[in-house]
């Protein structure tokens, strides 16, 4: 509430003592105001009326501005439903080298068809913040149960956003207008076990990893034009074991990815040349059976000089971790001996894919173990350790086989995938919205304008 700027002779503003709520002038203050130097009752009444008129005008302007900028919302509610089935995070072979899915309970490809009847609010998702602090200003606020609209005035100026994601059920690369419309199949039947995807909109390319058969050490990476044409192999089968999430560093002209059974973090030039191993976590068949050695999600902070990765651990085993190291190899060291590796978070259920908001100092990830979308500060809190910290915020829960994640920082959104769902939530956990349902078994996601 605003108050009329009428002041007593001593200079104090009038305060709320019961009276006219619009003008902020009240009976006791009217009497006191009569002591104003040289101010007649007629002048006083005129001034009060002017203040009330000004307040009404300002209120009207504020209401008009608010109405003009408020987006519409879809009142429908929905459910990020799942058909169970194939463990999408690791394609046809989720967690073993035998090629058998030991965690799924059905055929993930038996959906009745993609449901694109409209974005719906996932009211079953929890937006409660985790215990302790959070990235930025605290835990994510509770959901109001509403669905975000399409592009608001500010977001519309960013341009049309196209999402690209992978369907491991049919070995498909999909495209989706983030503000509506049915998904489009760009590539089908090329590759085997697609998992991570990156886009270079300026150069006009899509890149995606293919795990192949994890028992055969035959993973590879494909590239196509943005429309799905001209598919070509840039990293040959066997040059990487089971490549997972992939990230593009366009400034440096590099691709980064996690290699699960290869137990490594790798990178190459955009054409697949100059293949490098940045970190070797472990080596040998025995070490490969220890899933704490499995590198999956990756992120890159080129300006800050860091790359990040996830070592996922066993299914919902509470042994997952998020780590980072310098892009520049320490002098005299190599991928097996480097000493600059930092553990940022340990003891997570089963983290999978990763993205970072460097400016905000926040990391975001999916966790297949407890079916959640999460965030936390990048840095370990003071007086805590990576294992003792408990400051993650759960932005969305109930995302069956949560896999892909991508941050649209200009618009303030997190996009994610799981079994049967493409979803969007604000960076702070508000407005969880299901964009596509009954979509198959989905893995990586990215986007571009």
Architecture overview:
The chain is mainly beta and 449 residues long. The protein has two domains: 1-70, no CATH class; 77-448, Neuraminidase (6 Propeller). The chain has four helices and 24 strands. The chain has helices at 27-33, 41-69, 153-156, 285-288; strands spanning 77-78, 120-122, 162-167, 172-177, 184-188, 194-200, 205-210, 219-225, 232-240, 243-249, 254-259, 264-269, 276-280, 295-301, 306-311, 320-326, 342-348, 351-357, 362-367, 372-377, 393-397, 405-408, 413-426, 433-448. Strands 1, 2, 3, 4, 5, 22, 23 and 24 form an eight-stranded mixed beta sheet that branches.
Summarize the structure.
The chain is mainly β.
Low-confidence stretches: 1-120, 122-153
From the alpha-carbon coordinates, what is the Rg to the nearest angstrom?
27 Å
Q: State the fourth-level CATH superfamily of the largest domain.
A: TolB, C-terminal domain
- Would you tell me which CATH topology of the largest domain applies? Neuraminidase
Counting H and I runs of at least 4 residues, what is the number of helices?
Answer: 4
Major sheet: 8 strands, mixed
Number of strands: 24
CATH class of the largest domain: Mainly Beta
The CATH architecture of the largest domain comes to: 6 Propeller
Classify the helix fraction into a percent range: under 10%
Supply the helix-strand structural class. mainly beta
Backbone shape: globular
Oligomer: single chain
What letter string, H or E per element, gives the SSE order?
Answer: HHEEHEEEEEEEEEEEHEEEEEEEEEEE
């Amino acid at each position: 509430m605003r108050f009329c700027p009428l002041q007593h002779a001593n200079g104090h503003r009038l305060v709320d003592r019961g009276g006219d709520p619009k003008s902020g002038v009240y009976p006791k203050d009217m009497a006191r105001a009569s002591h104003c130097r040289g101010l007649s009752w007629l002048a006083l009444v005129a001034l009060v009326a002017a203040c009330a008129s000004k307040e009404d005008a300002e209120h009207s302007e504020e209401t008009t501005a608010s109405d003009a900028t408020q987006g519409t919302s879809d009142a429908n509610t929905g459910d990020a439903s799942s058909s169970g089935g194939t463990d999408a995070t690791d394609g046809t072979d989720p967690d073993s080298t035998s090629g058998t899915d030991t965690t799924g309970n059905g055929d993930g490809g038996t959906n009745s068809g993609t449901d694109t009847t409209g974005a719906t609010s996932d009211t079953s998702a929890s937006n409660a913040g985790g215990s302790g602090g959070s990235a930025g200003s605290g835990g994510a606020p509770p959901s109001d149960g509403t669905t975000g609209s399409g592009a608001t005035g500010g977001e519309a100026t960013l341009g049309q956003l196209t999402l690209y994601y992978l369907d491991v059920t049919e070995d498909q690369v999909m495209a989706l207008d983030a503000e509506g419309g049915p998904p489009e199949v760009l590539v089908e039947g090329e590759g085997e076990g697609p998992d991570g995807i990156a886009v270079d909109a300026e150069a006009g390319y899509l890149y995606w990893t293919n795990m192949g058969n994890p028992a055969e050490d035959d993973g590879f990476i494909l590239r196509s034009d943005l429309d799905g044409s001209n598919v070509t192999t840039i990293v040959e089968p066997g040059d990487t074991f089971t490549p997972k999430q992939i990230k593009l560093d366009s400034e440096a002209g590099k691709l980064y990815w996690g290699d699960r059974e290869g137990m490594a973090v790798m990178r190459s030039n955009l054409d697949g040349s100059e293949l490098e191993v940045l970190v070797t976590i472990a080596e040998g068949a025995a070490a490969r059976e220890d899933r704490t050695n499995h590198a999956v999600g990756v992120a890159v902070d080129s300006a800050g000089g860091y790359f990040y990765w996830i070592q996922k651990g066993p299914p919902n085993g509470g042994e997952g971790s998020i780590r980072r190291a310098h892009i520049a190899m320490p002098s005299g060291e190599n991928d097996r001996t480097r000493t600059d590796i930092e553990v940022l978070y340990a003891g997570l259920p089963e983290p999978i894919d990763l993205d970072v908001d460097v400016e905000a100092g926040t990391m975001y990830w999916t966790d297949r173990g407890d079916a959640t979308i999460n965030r936390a500060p990048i840095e370990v809190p003071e007086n805590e350790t990576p294992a003792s910290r408990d400051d993650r915020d759960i932005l969305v829960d109930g995302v069956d086989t949560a896999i892909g994640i991508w941050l649209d920082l200009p618009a303030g959104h997190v996009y994610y995938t799981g079994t049967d769902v493409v979803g969007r939530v604000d960076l702070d956990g508000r407005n969880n919205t299901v964009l596509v349902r009954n979509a198959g078994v989905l893995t990586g996601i990215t986007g571009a304008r």
